[in-house]
Amino acid sequence: MLIDHNTALQTGGLLSGGDHAPHTGFRFENNITLHNRHGIAGSGTSAGLPALDRYFPASVVRRNVIVGGSASEYPRDNFFPPALDDVGFASHRDGRFHLTRHSPFSRAATDGRDPGADIDAPGPAASSLALLGARDDTARTRGAVLPAGGAAPEIGVVLFWLAFALLGYVYLGYPLVAALTALVQSKPHHRAPIEPTVSVIVLAYNEGERLAARIENLLALDYPRDRLEIVVGSDGSTDDTVACARQYAQRGVNVRPFPVRRGKPAVINELVPSARGEIVVFADARQRFDRGAVRALVANFADRRVGAVSGELMLRAHHDAAAAGHGTAFYWRYEKLIRLTESRVDSTVGATGAIYAIRRELFEPVPADTILDDVLIPLRIVRRGYRVVFEPEARAYDHTSTTAGQELARRARTIAGTFQLFARERWLHNPLRNRLWLQTISHKGLRLMLPALHVLFFAANVALVQLAPYCWMLAAQSAFYAAALVGCGRRPAQRHLRIVSVPHTICLLSWATIIGFARMVTQTQPVTWERACGLAPAAPLNQPRGFALPMDGNDGGRAN
Length: 560
Known about the structure:
Helix content is 36%, strand content 16%. With 560 residues, the protein is an alpha/beta fold. The relative contact order is 0.11.
């Protein structure tokens, strides 16, 4: 029998062996109790060690706080404060019986926790704990005298630290592991100024008002015109998108109008096989390429092991952007670090939809309802044994979302696509078939668990709030979520509170994960994309590094 982590302020003896039979294998550990007249175990005529030896031969009694006892009456590995005031309770007179951090017995239990029950107020007190006929060596009581203080806190501690560890790994652990791995196991690839034939495919839906600027941007690229094909695919546009594109037909722009809107994957499936270039570059109508973007992309294909190259999307925050827009600054610098380190070790998990390139010969048609084609296409190239690398010098430019609603919608679509990806591409789950298994699970899979982990972390913290370390952590969590709520505000005074933008963005991503999961389960996420409002920055050719915020994503060219 094991009795541990109880707080018993009994009036008589605590343990009574009424059958007068010895009980072997008895363990009494980490409890707080009173010695009283006959000790924790007494027969009425003997107390302390004689009673323990008689009723509980070869017992283990250690790390207990026995108020009023002494080392001459009990085994020495116990504690003997003279009075209750010396125990270090929060306030035993007010019914708060948990230990404070200043207690001399704090963390003195065998398991590194406080002895006694982890509660404030006792339940119905028993005058003794009867062991009549208790001969089952596996019997265990925890919190028996004060029943609220035993197994529940222990489970709460396990759940708390499990959630903490997983959250820490997703947010900090994996990026750190990836960075350290890149330092010791970097796999550099060959780059050279080659000039293969290139097809730039621009997908457009109702982009008439800004398509001309986009085509002019592509025609100004630093790449031989006789080796560069520009293809504009109109996915069921109802405005003057097709007419605008055809104005550039004499300058070599190939226009492919599709009368029925089907979505990006269906258009890609038709355009890529008919493209003339050895390298296919995917682009959207909204963004603008740096003049040297295509050269930077194709230089990586000098290495035959490279099958796809992801560029970098640089985002500027609008001057009136809410916290969701400003929060992307920190978040996407962090995301860029992950992509850089993944690329140096082997391959990135997915690509930046606004600017990435593949070898045309490696293209595999994707299902027409695929949401994240810019993740699925590169991953299938990885499955064939090639690398997908990140090229930070191949830059496209855009603006961040101006409102939390825009960012939420974008992220929900991306996350619905991630759920779809894991549900369909079962080979991703198998480390024997997916050489990027650790990266895929760490960078993509575990992020889908973040809402559940945040809830578990907070709920377990609430359950443990009576313990001093956890009450401070609950206060920190509460401050974090309060900052996130402040970030929801749209008043000008709130928009520039950068300190709240990161908590707001993290919570926004968790909420988007819930929405994305619901859309995936209910099959309500459309594969078609909606035209984003506003215009991207106009063709910055030699942009200073501090101009824009590095960002990768999907929907409007961003990836998850």
